[in-house]
Specification:
heterodimer, A: 382 residues, D-Maltodextrin-Binding Protein, domain 2, 18 helices, 4 strands, B: 413 residues, mainly alpha, abc type-2 transporter like fold, 5 strands, 69% helix, elongated
């Protein structure tokens, strides 16, 4: 009887397009939208700047050599030389982030349109040139012979310090250029929560005061717990399939490279998230009398929890984690996002373990509450 | 008047859904941006967010470096815990700098050896550890540049005056580091409003489209229910008049949504809303509201009561697609070229483009106004196309409806 009921409920759920839409199609559509928009984001846009060709600039070849050296180096700075009016026009047209004017006393003045990070980088660049120039000029005044030796020595020192700086950056390197992938992980969490609609639908079918089907089932000589178990198995199967399709789609669309030994972990995270979501749906279905309202609350909750998990802005996720850790702890979308983030970026299994524990605990607590409520349901008349 | 009462009841019955869509953009903007963006005409150097661990507690150079970094940047207080550091480097910090124990002593010893003409060993002491964050690519580059410069200035100073005390060298270095490149902001001819108001106007386009669509869809679902429709058909009020009344009531409700956003904007941004850019954006929003109303009318004109699932699907997907592709959530220049081309077929693109133009304008000249006028004209064209399409759909639907009624009438007789 268990499998008979399972088969019928499976078909009944599959024949409701709105359920499949929310649990599967909507997250996939969003994943495509994400890929088309944030997938192609280029955060390493070069900083464009110019040196104005004036008398002080042309007096020496220092600046033109500097432009060549900087352009040849692997830095985000792209420099050129332009006449004053052209530089100003290029700045207004947003083709330049700023331009330098070499003043008569060799000081640099930077002209920008706004305060921002590219402009601050340019200021640091100009300041570096000026400070080193000032120091070398002071040395030249005192002891020209020593100055040449010092310039060579400090140039070598800069190289050394840069090399030292790059020693320990593996953690950041591992992150690579895929920082946007975390958005897809929160989308995956949202998909699981939307899938809770299956559970709401199942509760509607089980409860005699919510549907004709429920009335028919309740008067049938069947063990109630077996029906509940069968319904729960239907929800888990459907959600699991939807989630696995979503995960596979995210891996494919984002071109993620997942080491084979970690694949089981991804599956376990999917299963735990599925379990927690099914339990959330069951609780909503049991405690909210009107199924439509339960669906509405589920959609609203899913959106809010995904927002807190960083789906619309990753800073929200970080701020919630930092300032309201309890809110993150009880947010299944965040727990799923965090598990995938820890696994994909850092392969940190202990953190994944904690996330899994939270998801399973949520599923157990909410699932137990739903089952207890269902078990004790009595009707005065049907 | 009775139509208004009915519509008020429909809206009241769906207040939870509508409330969510109205409040989401307001909450996002207020939480993320707030009104705290000061309007200045002075250049302000961006302060990087740095996690600094100074493990060289007794080192004088380390203390100098910490103080110097603290003056120029924001030093984050993060527990020296792997998870915290990872999250901070991923989401918040530009870099982590770890000054290892013995750093100062090793540098001093190396420079002293150099000043005596001795060869410094290749690996003669601990070096700074710099871990780069993921926030922005320029931040770490800038830090690297500044750190190299700081070490270079100290190095040169130490070699130039090997016999000077640390205090004397510190004074030399401080004098050098005090000089910075002057930065001049090319003066704006218009009063800058700060970025958050522009963000507010971008985000409300999402909320407006979602809310207006849901509101008009709920109204359409109710009035297109078969029993209500039969009753309307048999009532003495002409069908066209009834349709106009429903349309008018729906339009007024949609305009009320826009007015609500405008009121929140006035409350929150005060004088900024009364500047010429603020008024231009309000006008732009008003025109976009008309587009939202006409689009919603088009999409809901043939709905029947069994299509509530479709309403939820469209109502959630469409505003997100419009917002993502139109540059609401992500600055438009980040999007790839094919997406940008595709986006120009969406009204949200023209709405956001007006906001972008007003934000980027250094003077409100004829170029700016002609672009704003062009964008608003394109939006009105969108509205016109939607109206024509709605009329065509309604006409087709009415013809089908009258044929069905005719057949039913024949059967009765």
């Amino acid at each position: 009887m268990f499998w008979h009921f399972y088969r019928y409920r499976l078909l009944a759920n599959l024949k409701q397009p709105q359920l499949v839409f929310w649990a599967l199609v909507f997250p996939l559509l969003l994943a495509i939208v994400f890929q088309l928009t944030i997938g192609g984001i280029q955060t390493d846009r070069p900083i464009h700047a110019a040196f104005v060709e004036n008398e002080a600039f042309s007096e020496t070849d220092v600046y033109s050599r500097l432009i060549d050296d900087v352009n040849a180096a692997d830095t985000p700075l792209k420099l050129r030389q332009l006449p004053a009016e052209e530089a100003r026009q290029a700045l207004f047209a947003n083709e330049l982030d700023g331009y330098f004017i070499v003043e008569a006393d060799s000081r640099l003045t930077l002209h920008v349109m706004r305060s921002g990070l590219p402009q601050s980088v340019l200021q640091s660049f100009g300041t570096t040139i000026e400070q080193r120039r000032a120091q070398i000029e002071a040395l030249l005044e005192g002891n020209p012979g020593q100055a040449a030796r010092l310039i060579a020595a400090t140039a070598e020192e800069e190289l050394e310090s840069s090399r030292g700086s790059e020693k320990d950056i593996e953690a950041a390197e591992r992150v690579g250029n895929s920082a946007q992938t975390v958005y897809f992980f929160s989308l995956f969490g949202m998909g699981a929560l939307f899938g809770a609609s299956f559970a709401i639908n199942e509760i509607e079918a089980l409860e005699a005061n919510k549907s004709a089907e429920g009335r028919r089932i309740r008067v049938a000589p069947l063990h109630h717990m077996r029906l509940i178990g069968s319904s729960f198995a239907v929800v888990l199967s459907l959600l699991l399939v939807c989630q696995l399709v979503q995960l596979a789609f995210i891996i494919w669309i984002q071109n993620l490279v997942i080491p084979p030994q970690l694949v089981p972990w991804y599956l376990v995270i999917t299963l735990a998230g599925t379990f927690a979501s099914a339990a959330i749906g069951a609780v909503l279905g049991v405690f909210v009398r009107k199924p439509d309202l339960a669906f509405g609350i589920n959609v609203g909750l899913s959106l809010i929890m995904s927002f807190f998990a960083g789906m619309m802005n990753d800073q929200v996720r970080y701020n919630i984690n930092t300032h309201f850790p309890w809110l993150s702890a009880i947010n299944p979308a965040e727990q799923m996002t965090d598990a995938l983030y820890s696994l994909y970026y850092y392969e940190d299994l202990s953190r994944v373990g904690r996330n899994l524990l939270m998801l399973v605990a949520m599923g157990l607590v909410l699932g137990t509450v739903a089952v207890l409520k269902l078990r004790r349901q009595r009707y005065v008349h049907l | 008047m009775s139509i208004f009462k009915v519509i008020r009841r429909i809206i009241a019955a769906n207040r939870l859904n509508l409330g969510i869509y109205i409040s989401i953009p307001i909450i996002i903007v207020l939480v993320l941006v707030g009104q705290g963006d000061p309007v200045t005409t002075q250049f302000q150097s961006r302060r990087q967010k740095i996690i600094l661990f100074n493990e060289d507690q007794d080192g004088l150079l380390a203390a100098e470096l910490e103080a110097w970094l603290g003056e120029r940047h924001d030093l984050l207080e993060i527990a020296d815990n792997t998870n915290r550091i990872r999250d901070a480097l991923f989401y918040q910090a530009d870099a982590l700098i770890r000054i290892p124990p013995g750093f100062s002593a090793a540098l001093e010893a190396r420079w002293e050896a150099e000043s005596k003409g001795q060869e410094a060993a290749a690996d003669d002491g601990p070096e700074l550890i710099l871990e780069l964050g993921k926030r922005e690519s320029y931040g770490p580059e800038r830090l690297r540049l500044e750190l190299d410069n700081w070490i270079g200035v100290w190095h040169t100073s130490s070699l130039a005056r090997p016999d000077a005390s640390f205090v004397e060298r510190r004074a030399d270095v401080a004098a050098i580091l005090a000089s910075e490149t002057d930065v001049q902001i090319e003066q704006f001819d218009v009063k800058a409003l700060g970025p958050s108001i522009y963000l507010y106007f971008r985000y409300i386009s999402y909320g407006m489209l979602a809310t207006i669509y849901f509101m008009l869809a709920m109204i359409a679902l109710e009035f297109n229910r078969q029993n209500i429709r039969l009753r309307s058909d048999s009532s003495p009020v002409p069908a066209q008049q009834l349709a106009l009344r429903i349309l008018g009531a729906g339009t007024l409700s949609a305009l009320a949504v826009m007015a609500l956003y405008a009121i929140v904007g006035f409350f929150y941004y005060g004088w900024r809303m009364q500047q010429v850019q603020g008024i231009a954006m309000l006008l732009n929003t008003f025109i976009y509201t008309i587009v939202c109303i006409t689009l919603a009318q088009l999409l809901t004109s043939t709905l029947n009561s069994r299509q509530s699932a479709l309403v939820y699907g469209i109502g959630n997907v469409m505003p997100l697609v419009f917002s993502f592709f139109g540059g609401v959530f992500i600055p438009f220049h980040f999007l790839s070229e094919p997406v940008q081309r595709l986006a120009s077929f969406l009204p949200s693109y023209w709405y956001v483009n007006t906001i972008d133009v007003l934000e980027a304008a250094n003077e409100l000249d004829t170029n700016v106004w002609s672009t704003v006028a062009r964008n608003n004209g394109v939006l009105l064209l969108f509205a016109l196309v939607f109206v024509l399409a709605t009329l065509a759909l309604r006409r087709a639907s009415r013809t089908r409806h009258s044929i069905r009624s005719h057949i039913a009438g024949d059967r009765l007789t």
